[in-house]
Design a protein that fits this description.
The protein is of the alpha/beta class and 270 residues long. The chain has helices at residues 4-13, 30-35, 87-99, 159-172, 192-201, 211-219, 244-253, 255-267; strands at residues 20-24, 37-43, 61-67, 70-76, 104-113, 123-131, 177-183, 205-207, 223-233. The structure holds hypoxanthine.
Length: 270
């Protein structure tokens, strides 16, 4: 293990070997409390030189345990570019997971619906993304221990995992949209003109996370799957002002089916 944070966490987790890495988005942290049979948790603040989560609705700790028989290492609270972290700080936890043995990387987020017909409370499986953050987490000296200088991104989100997610949703009787997530840096929500532009570019949903983690995970050879909880219609589409409160309230409203979807996916032993 190269990273001090990996050694620290490995030490605290003892013999636990995670296969799945899980990142819980805004308002979705309850999954760790409700669905993970935890063997341990480590606050980010305990880890030397590790960033801390500053957003409301993000607990800020690692939770290790099992879900449906799968060993999972979960970030209950993620780091966002808009909090002021450098991209290298966003890369760190992803690489820590890789060093601890994670092969499958499952990302969740809250997002605004851009495509026609998307409604608050819908779920969207990411088929692809557009990086509109203006920065790439792999910029700088290449981390050769993890991957190559110019990693392929032609299949950012694993086809088999997506098929399993679709099958899980069908089994549960849940609608699961599929589409392109466009990431902005935030923290301001978008303007209506930006949303019209993003729609023309092919975006189905817009958010402020996930893309940096996906890029770092693909660089390191992990299989990635990501699901958005559409918490609101994007700017200008509903006539209402956007608030973080609405984001949190919608995520809370659909917590049960969202957790069922994630747990059901893991139960299929991806
Ligand atoms: N825009 C950007 N990020 C978001 C949104 C949005 O409308 N909703 C939740 N996260």
């Amino acid at each position: 293990m190269h990273l001090p944070a990996s050694r620290f966490l490995a030490d605290r987790l003892g013999t636990f070997r995670p296969r799945v890495g899980l990142v819980l988005g805004s308002g979705l942290g309850f999954f760790a409390d409700e669905r993970i049979d935890a063997v341990g948790s480590v606050p980010y603040a305990d880890i030397p030189d590790f960033p801390r989560s500053t957003v409301e609705g993000h607990a800020g700790r690692w939770v290790a345990g099992t879900v449906a028989g799968q060993s999972v290492l979960c970030m209950q609270g993620r780091f966002h570019f808009y909090e002021g972290y450098g991209m290298e700080q966003l890369a760190l936890p992803v690489r820590v997971m890789r060093e601890l043995g994670v092969e499958i990387f499952l990302l969740t987020n809250a997002a605004g619906g851009v495509r026609d017909g998307m409604r608050p409370g819908d779920f969207m499986l990411l088929s692809d993304h557009i990086n509109f953050m203006g920065a790439n987490p792999l910029r700088g000296a290449n981390a050769d221990a993890f991957g190559t200088r110019f990693p392929d991104m032609s299949v950012p989100y694993d086809a088999d995992l997506r098929a399993l997610a679709r099958a899980t949703a069908a089994d549960l009787g849940l609608a699961l949209a599929e589409g392109v997530y466009l990431a902005v840096s935030g923290p301001s929500f978008e303007t209506p003109a930006e949303i019209r532009a993003f729609r023309a570019l092919g975006a189905d949903a817009v958010g402020m996370s996930t893309v940096p983690e996906c890029i770092v995970a693909r660089h390191a050879g992990m299989r990635v799957c990501a699901v958005s909880c559409i918490t609101n219609l994007a700017s200008g589409l509903s006539g209402d002002a956007l608030t973080h409160k609405e984001v949190a309230e919608t995520a809370a409203r659909v917590r049960r089916p969202f957790a069922d979807l994630i747990e059901g996916l893991l139960a299929r032993q991806p």
